[in-house]
Amino acid sequence: MAERTSRNPQTVDQALLDSIAVIPQVRWFHFSDPFSVTFDALAAHFGIHPLQVEDCRHRRQTARLEEHEKYTFIVIKTLVTASGEKRSSRTGPTVATGEQPANPHSSSDSSQPRLPEGRGNGGHLRFDDFDIFLGPDYLLTVSEGASPLVSSVIPRITAEAGLQNPDRIAHALIDSAVDRYLPALDHLGDFINRLEDRVIRNPAPPTLREIFRLKRTLLDFRRVATAMREAVNGLVRRYDAPLTAEGRHIDRELRIYYRDVYDHVVRVIDFIETYRDLLTGSLDIYLSAVANRTNEVMKILTLWGTIAMPLLVLTSFYGMNVELPFQRNPHALAALGGIMAASTVAIFIYIRRKHWF
Fold first, then answer.
1. What's the half-sphere exposure (Cβ side, CA atoms, 13 Å) at 282?
2. 262 pLDDT above the threshold of 90
3. Quick one: DSSP state of residue 355?
4. For a 10 Å CB count at each end of the chain, is N or C smaller?
């Protein structure tokens, strides 16, 4: 794959100076373009393995945690809205404060993913990769396009001085990413409830297609949440140890915060399993309703065929081209009509008394 280059690449030293000047005591670099040459320069400066750089450029990675001697590589999955977040084509490094939204106080509406309302949306969700390189005194993050995750975390970091270190910022990013899962599941739950009502009222083929789409969405969601659970569990174990892989002392208090994140991921998985069971129940209801409707139609047709059977027998009998009794009697038509009417009424009364109709 050909690499894209930045128009005005900064030097590593200049990027470091800029980061220190903007956020005191923190060196946080965020790249919205993984193909930036400045990203290559910083990766080489910090000794990041080329395979991790390639992982940042080839998206749709699995959430995971990889410990190295000089840094920790973390891949998390961020949830974006069904309609997709507007992406940016920035090519240079973005220091943390450069991602701040125009109105930070209204970030609660924009930071939570919402499913589109109405019929036929199928509950589509999309996950993007967010890569974190956590070093002893720096944090390097990579996304494809402008990341709403960065925008949602910046107000927390700027408001609390205790969060202004790489480990705390990494936790804030992961916590914010996981917090976006539950609101999306709530919207999925509302959609599933409406879908159940539609299954009961009108079990039509479009409803069946939406059930299968939702089951596939929840399957993908469960795959992402399971991988995130393992990654967060690795972070819990990381902060349980007295030293990091780089041999430095760490903030062991973070293990409590990561356990809270782990609990949230477990809740997400539990909700996913619950919604999958609800969809399975909706599918069973759909199949039962279709089978019952088919049986009802067959029952009505069978009953009407039974009622009409004497008429068919008599008309077929007297439709033969042979001499038959009463054939030349002028009152034969009235007599046959009376017999057919009487037999029809008799069969109808019999069926009603048996409660078959």
1. 29
2. yes
3. T
4. N
Q: Strand 28-31 and strand 139-142: pairing?
A: parallel
| Ranges 77-81, 98-102, 128-132, 275-279: which has the least confidence | 98-102
In the predicted model, is pLDDT for residue 187 greater than 80? Answer: yes
Using the structure block, give the residue that is written with the tokens 């009487």: 342
Contact 55, 39 (CB under 8 A): no
Query: Rounded to whole angstroms, how far apart are CA atoms 43 and 58?
Result: 16
Cβ count near 232 (within 10 Å): 25
List the domains of the chain with CATH numbers. Answer: 12-100+116-290 (3.30.460.20), 296-353 (1.20.58)
Which of helix, strand or coil describes residue 241? coil
Higher per-residue pLDDT: 347 or 71: 71
Give dist(CA 171, CA 265) in Å, integer. Answer: 14
Residues 150, 142: contact at Cβ < 8 Å? no
34 membership: H or E segment, kind and range: none
Q: Which of helix, strand or coil describes residue 30? A: strand
Q: Which residue has the tokens 């005194």?
A: 137
In angstroms, rounded to a whole number, what is the distance separating the alpha carbons of residues 36 and 53?
11
CB 248 within 8 A of CB 98: no
More confident residue, 279 or 202: 279
Angle value at C-alpha 35, between 27 and 56, nearest 5 degrees: 70
Residues in the chain: 357
Place of tokens 């069971």: 277
